[in-house]
Amino acid sequence: MNQTSNTTTSNPHHWLEQITRWYEKHEHTIINELREFLSIPSVSTDSRFRDDVLECATFLKEYLQDKVGASTKLIPTQGFPIVYGELIHNPRLPSILIYGHYDVQPPDPLDQWNTPPFDPTIRNGAIYARGASDDKGQLWLLIQAIRFAIREQQLPCNIYFLLEGEEEIGSPALTAYLQEHALPAIDVSLVSDTSIPSENQPGITVSLRGIAYFQLDIWGPARDLHSGVYGGAVLNPATLLTHILNQIYDIHSGKIQIPNFYNDVIELTTQERTLLAKGTPPPEAFQQDTGLPPHAEQGYTYHESRTIRPSFDINGLWSGYQGEGSKTIIPASAHAKFSFRLVPNQNWQTIAQLVQTFIQSLIPNGIRYKLHTFHGGNPYRLPLNSPYYQLAEQAYALTFGTQPLPLYEGGSIPIVSLLAERTQRDVLLMGFGLPTDQIHAPNEHFKLHMLKRGIQTIGTFLYLLAHHHESQT
Amino acid sequence: MNQTSNTTTSNPHHWLEQITRWYEKHEHTIINELREFLSIPSVSTDSRFRDDVLECATFLKEYLQDKVGASTKLIPTQGFPIVYGELIHNPRLPSILIYGHYDVQPPDPLDQWNTPPFDPTIRNGAIYARGASDDKGQLWLLIQAIRFAIREQQLPCNIYFLLEGEEEIGSPALTAYLQEHALPAIDVSLVSDTSIPSENQPGITVSLRGIAYFQLDIWGPARDLHSGVYGGAVLNPATLLTHILNQIYDIHSGKIQIPNFYNDVIELTTQERTLLAKGTPPPEAFQQDTGLPPHAEQGYTYHESRTIRPSFDINGLWSGYQGEGSKTIIPASAHAKFSFRLVPNQNWQTIAQLVQTFIQSLIPNGIRYKLHTFHGGNPYRLPLNSPYYQLAEQAYALTFGTQPLPLYEGGSIPIVSLLAERTQRDVLLMGFGLPTDQIHAPNEHFKLHMLKRGIQTIGTFLYLLAHHHESQT
């Protein structure tokens, strides 16, 4: 096969040199085009930006078509369109699904930005803009690596792009799409939307927690009542709410008390726990960061408690009078937002059912309540013996000169587990964000150095993947 | 003694007729003067009304001087002045301390008033204005009854007026004054600032609960943290807050769990409980009113639970995200306002100490919190065998044609217990408000019929008191 000549005739070091030269030659254009991408305020959560999000989808579609050579289309949804693209050499070649998102978080508070969030500015070797790291900048490095490797070098791989405009609002349209439509058969999905520990310590995210998020509303008296006149003869909805929340979670053991909650939790092996422990920040650094001494579930370290163990958090709480001074009322209602982080193999819908049953059992007769289940997501874990993990490991090691760590993340990217479920293939999370990127905050930025490193690493990974495929066939 | 001729030579029925004739003759003036009093917007809580509150104090002082013949002065305080007045015939005569307040609640929401709150309007036999019932209208009937009985009829009693302008903000100035100054020796204090069950069923408030009000602030992480990244390794302040609140109160038994909380509670006798039970609204009416089936402390009826038993209520609760949708944070802080209603002989400062000790014992190491104790107040109870209670009972029975009920109120009027403590005498709460008066709400009003009934009843009470004193000496 002619197309495979590059991978068979040269070694990865040589390939990496080629990427680097290519990047340095096109750096100016790549960055300018990224600036154009970043200057479109594609804030998905705010309807005032609706047209901008749509414009951003079109920009991306056209870019993939014109500059990467993909056949593209906008897949209409109930919300913002999915940018779909195909770059197919030959169906028998290894196929990679690229996932990313073109929407961004709102830029507020605006007055804390040093330069406007949608006027991308380069200073101190970084590009400052909303979305610079999450996820436009990281999507950009994927696209550029593919542009080089597949378009220019004709590396024998097929690429599918599946880029959504609703990640920051929970991916409703893409979730529905994935549930209703079959995806092309692929070998692996590739995502750059995560961070690595530091510029010198790369990592591959191998574990994500799932989430189940709820709002509980309890209605008490028909109106706020005078707590003197009625206190003692009326079940206070705030009191009931605190009772229920306290029944869910035992603060002393750090364990969730809902029956059968832990049934499906997979324990890590001793070896995995040892590897995980290597990534544990020292307690002093943790306390420096959070302002609190670390807390842990009984039987686990605090780092395990926030990564490979389920957790419970109250995210919001409100009832009655919140102003200055005192107001002597029995509130008419009480509300809480709370969520669980889930770990393999918990299923968020099973958990939601358990939560519902448990709460129902705690509501006294005659009390009106509503338990609303927000969109949840399942946990995800990539086995360390996955060949794709090992290829990614090599790619990072070649580019960074340092072996990457497997990263067990406490956060959730529900679309990742859904992609894995629907493709029945691994999802590889090769991130290049840094903890200092200020994502979701004012002055979000992405280091140009990391943009280059990302293109080098992904380009090398594609090379290794194609090479691996050849050696298998 | 010449002055006593009226009381000895005529009977109470005759006296009541005289009051009635006097009232009917002066009704027009009395109501017009009340309108003038009501038209001064003496909103104590809002500094924009500062001058109006001061004007109202002066109006009241001059009225007592010019129309009632009292020697008066304004006692300056840190806040609004106390209107003090004396109407002394002879130090050996029975002396009555009149307490009332000339300040009013804010009129908001203004758009719900049918006529402006400070443009007193008469319709459907009632006067509509902020303060019409609470307390200007009720203070007015006391003043008019005294004007008739003491000024015009020279009834042998001494009157002291102690009228404050800060009742609606918790009586700080009067509380300080009472703690620092001795009061003249008196026989009984008289207050008209309460309600009776209905126009046809008078009552005398014999019991008030005390109050101890707190705000608990718990600080967690230095900022809102991502609940995915940190959840499980950080003690969530909202979780700790709900834990603490839940430790204070057991929702199943309705009992407060703070050690020694009930130590000083006086149990009612079987006879008192039977009398109290007569005033219990039927559960259907209660549910109609509150929208909830009645709740009760174990071992007590729901009416007892809200009148002669202590209670615990969460009055406000806030933490984290309260907006639409979901936000995955561990909140940086959590806050609650909560209060206890207290019963004789609980002391609010003792209770505050118990609460403080209890909460401190529940705060884990390294967690920053603040427990703020707002002004509290002690409970009050007038024994049913008090001679003043019995005289008041007669006065209501004569005027209304119905025996009044002893009323056990769940609410608190901290100044009442303080007056009782400082004078070492009973405080008689002879109210004429109706449950439908809309106090503290838009369209507050006072029935003119009740203004008249009040003047008749208080006038008769004064007569009976003077007569009683004579028979004792």
Q: Given the helix and strand composition of chain A, which structural class is it?
A: alpha+beta
Radius of gyration of chain A: 24 Å
Low-confidence stretches of chain A: 1-9
Assembly status: homodimer
Helical stretch tally of chain A? 14
CATH superfamily of the largest domain in chain A: Zn peptidases
**Number of beta-strand segments of chain A:** 20
The largest β sheet of chain A comes out as: 6 strands, mixed
Give the largest interface pair and sizes.
Answer: A-B, 81 and 79 residues
Q: Which percent band covers the strand fraction of chain A?
A: 15-25%
What is the CATH class of the largest domain in chain A? Alpha Beta
Assign a percent range to the helix content of chain A.
25-40%
Quote the distance from N terminus to C terminus of chain A. 13 Å
Compute the number of structural domains of chain A.
2
CATH topology of the largest domain in chain A, anyone?
Answer: Aminopeptidase
CATH architecture identity of the largest domain in chain A: 3-Layer(aba) Sandwich
Report strand order across the widest sheet of chain A: 1-2-6-3-7-19
How would you sum up the global shape of chain A?
globular
